[in-house]
Specification:
Largest sheet: 12 strands, mixed
Shape: globular
Number of helices: 12
Structural class: alpha+beta
Distance between the termini: 36 Å
């Protein structure tokens, strides 16, 4: 047997027997099943909108100005990260990065956000976090802001064009249920999208579907076209969203969905909950208006905190708080004043929206990309109390961390979540000196300029992506963001002094590292082979694999290991099907299957079959 086949046999055997060592290479140990929790935990990932680094009490906001006790309670019982980064300083790319475990600039979309009329951005062919968890037995839902597009082509403002064309959407990424603000708080749709349908809340908060294809005049939004004119609502004939009630309505919807899952008691759940707070327009509810000393912006932060409090209370009431993982973070930094009156009032009151960090939303600076990140795992208690970690984390890492935590019987192809690294060991360890797993991370501003953080150093490349001038509706970055520059964040977290001329060797080192990251894993990879058939026979099984149209390295062979009782049986083939012989009729088997390519001996595709039993031919057959 060749060395490549020997390695494949070992890998497949480990896949079936659970023999992978979770303490081995930290960059790959998330691909094995974890025994951290006694039963599959429920998972809630909360992605706030435009919540700046300094906008929580646990991150330094004065309690005299705002109070965030519910979000802070997660930090008191979990791990608070001080050096967590969004992959981008604007909304859509970060949402892409979190769900796909992949830097968003690896796609054709190098800058900007998904416009309200644009199609679904993430490829349906790629594995997403929600698909992965669904395959592992989870019920999945996304509730709140979506901002990743719908359908397969651009929509016009004609009502007829939207009917039955807002799929593919969340369901194509593995969400069983979706209830979303389609793009932004206050966007032109003015409605909710639920499971591919246009809906709104009518009397007594009952959902109402589209009543006609008539275009209604609901006036203008708070958003502007590039010429300064107002954008009008599309005019869908359903009750329109009331901005001041959105936070409460999506929170209620999230709680109702979780209650349904608990009542069914069939499977754990994954909820991707995405509040609209504190994105413009700043619209605090009646209940929070006037409750902060930071103006309406501070009141809106209170709405966000109250929403999280309602979710935490519901978990206690349902009796599932002790088996629910909660991750809280933000998609990018807070919007700095500019023309934003409410943010200006908050800052004038003393609220440092992004702490002492430079810049804010849309910028390449720390205030644009460094975000709050709090992780609470009930079983991960720490003897020393609340834990604070300066481990370097990117929100793309949430994918690998959850895979590491809950495990899965199927190994992931090499192009799944290629920019995701598990930080679970940091969460579970009491040792504040736990060796960091990620040594560098890449961030981007709204215009696609990249920066790399490695250790204390941050280098801004200062280069706009190719064809930037042809990109619709993307403003050129302000200030000196288009200039290469180097900062030592330990000495100047405010990024006040460019020291590139003093440390040319560091500049060159980071430039090369960024280029290596950019070039690595850059392609979409070959389309995954599909396990299409398991055909048991007399003492054997025939395993069939189909190949979609694909690009990338050619497949060099297939292999399978089948396990029944305590015995392993191996089969290999240069083409589909794979025949595994020597099996015992009537015994139940499962087979781990892989395909290899000429890049190396490691398999790039693996799958585990459903159970089956070989059968003897019937008499006279």
């Amino acid at each position: 047997m060749s060395s490549a086949l020997l390695l494949t046999f070992a890998l497949l055997s480990a896949l079936l027997l659970g023999g992978c060592d979770s303490t081995s290479d930290p960059s790959t140990n998330y691909r094995t099943r974890s025994s951290t929790l006694e039963s599959p935990p429920n998972i809630i990932v909360i992605l706030a909108d435009d919540l700046g680094y300094g906008s929580l009490n646990s991150y330094g906001a004065s309690r005299e100005l705002i109070q965030t006790p519910n979000i802070d309670s997660l930090a008191e019982n979990g791990v608070r990260f001080t050096d967590a980064y969004a992959p981008s300083s604007v909304c859509s790319p970060t949402r892409y990065g979190l769900l796909m475990g992949r830097y968003p600039w690896r796609t054709e979309k190098k800058a900007g956000v998904v416009h309200v009329n644009q199609p679904l951005w993430p490829s349906q062919e790629r594995m997403s976090l929600s698909k992965w968890l669904k395959a592992d037995g989870y019920a999945t839902a996304t509730i709140g802001k979506w901002h990743l597009g719908y359908g397969t082509k651009n929509h016009s403002e004609a009502i007829e064009e939207w009917i039955n064309t807002i799929v593919p959407g969340p369901e194509a990424l593995g969400f069983d249920y979706s209830f979303n603000v389609p793009q932004n708080h206050g966007d032109q749709t003015g409605v909710y999208f639920e499971n591919g349908k246009i809906v709104g809340f009518g009397g007594e908060d009952q959902l109402v579907g589209l009543r006609s294809t008539d275009k209604k005049d609901y006036g203008s939004t708070t958003y502007k076209w590039t010429d300064g004119s107002s954008k009008n609502f599309f005019g869908f004939d359903v009750p329109q969203r009331v901005d001041e009630r959105v936070t409460d309505q999506i929170t209620t919807r999230a709680i109702e969905w979780m209650e349904q899952q608990v009542e069914k008691n069939e499977q754990p759940f994954f909820l991707f909950f995405t509040p609209v707070a504190v994105h413009n327009p700043i619209t605090p509810s009646v209940n929070t208006s006037g409750t902060s000393r930071a103006g309406p912006y501070g009141d809106f932060i209170h709405d966000l905190d109250n929403s999280i409090g309602r979710i935490l209370d519901s978990l206690e009431q349902m009796g599932i708080a002790d088996n629910t993982i909660i991750i809280f973070t933000s998609d990018n930094g807070g919007a700095t004043p500019g023309n934003h009156t409410m943010q200006r009032l908050a800052i004038q009151s003393g609220l440092a929206i992004n702490g002492q960090l430079r810049g804010g939303k849309t910028s390449i600076w720390e205030g644009g990309t460094r975000v709050p990140l709090i992780v609470q795992i009930p079983s991960a208690t720490h003897d020393s109390g609340p834990k604070v970690s300066d481990t370097l984390v990117n929100l793309t890492d949430i994918f690998a961390t959850l895979v590491h935590l809950v495990g899965n019987d199927t190994a992931l192809p090499y192009w799944v979540a290629p920019d995701s690294i598990s930080f679970l060991p940091v969460i579970l360890s009491d040792d504040t000196q736990t060796k960091p797993l990620r040594t560098s991370t890449v961030t981007a501003n709204h215009a696609g300029i990249l920066a790399i953080r490695s250790g204390d150093w941050k280098w801004v490349e200062g280069v706009l992506p190719d064809a930037f001038d042809e990109m619709r509706g993307i403003a050129a970055p302000g200030g000196d963001q288009t200039l290469p520059q180097l900062y030592n964040l330990r000495e100047s977290i405010e990024e006040k002094t460019d020291v590139s001329s003093d440390y040319p060797q560091i500049v060159e080192q980071l430039r090369q590292e960024l280029e290596a990251i950019r070039e690595s894993k850059a392609s979409d990879g070959p389309n995954a082979p599909q396990l299409t058939g398991i055909r048991p026979g007399n003492g054997q099984v025939s395993i069939h694999i189909s190949l979609a149209d694909r690009s990338g390295p050619p497949i060099t062979g297939y292999a399978a290991v089948c396990k029944g009782d305590d015995s392993l049986f191996f089969g290999a083939s240069a083409a589909s099907p794979i025949i595994v012989s020597g099996l015992t009729n009537g015994v139940t088997y499962r087979c781990a299957v892989t395909a290899t390519n000429d890049v190396g001996t490691s398999p790039f595709f693996s799958a585990v079959t459903a159970p089956f039993s070989p059968v003897a031919p019937s008499p006279g057959g």
